[in-house]
Structures are given as C-alpha cells and as structure tokens.
C-alpha cells in the first residue's frame, strides 16, 4: 500500500483514489476523463452562475413558488417549442 500511495496518492488528475483501491487501476483513463469533465463543468458554473453556492440555490428561483403576490412558476427549458402547465 505504501508504494501505491507514493505512486498515486499525490495525483491531482482524478486518479489519487487508485492509491486506496487497486481495482480502479484499469480505469485510470476513465477517471481522468470524468475528472476533466467535472473540472470543465465547475469552471462553467463558476463563470456563468456565480459559483457552486449560488448555483445550488436555483430551487429558490425555479419551480412553483408561493409569493406574497400569488404563485410564480419558472422553468428552464432551452430550445423548448412548447410548455404546458396543468393543474
């Protein structure tokens, strides 16, 4: 395990977890790919949405919300041709 920690433990490309689980080693390329996709998405959220904290609060703005003036419904539907609300 010590050798594995030396080889994998300090990696910052999504593969450091291999130090703790030998069975993940065949999936190193997939781990790197997924980690890179995560980093791209996180950068996009930081740039366009003001960060993960602000982005995670979307439920306060979208959906059906009761306000002092009534009920508001907001939905994010890019490319939608039609939207129906039933109820």
Automatic annotation (TrEMBL):
Q: Which GO terms describe its molecular function?
A: 1,4-alpha-glucan branching enzyme activity
| Coiled coil location | none
Q: Which GO terms describe its biological process?
A: glycogen biosynthetic process
Q: Which residues cross the membrane?
A: none
The record's GO CC annotations read: cytoplasm
Its name, as the record gives it, is Uncharacterized protein
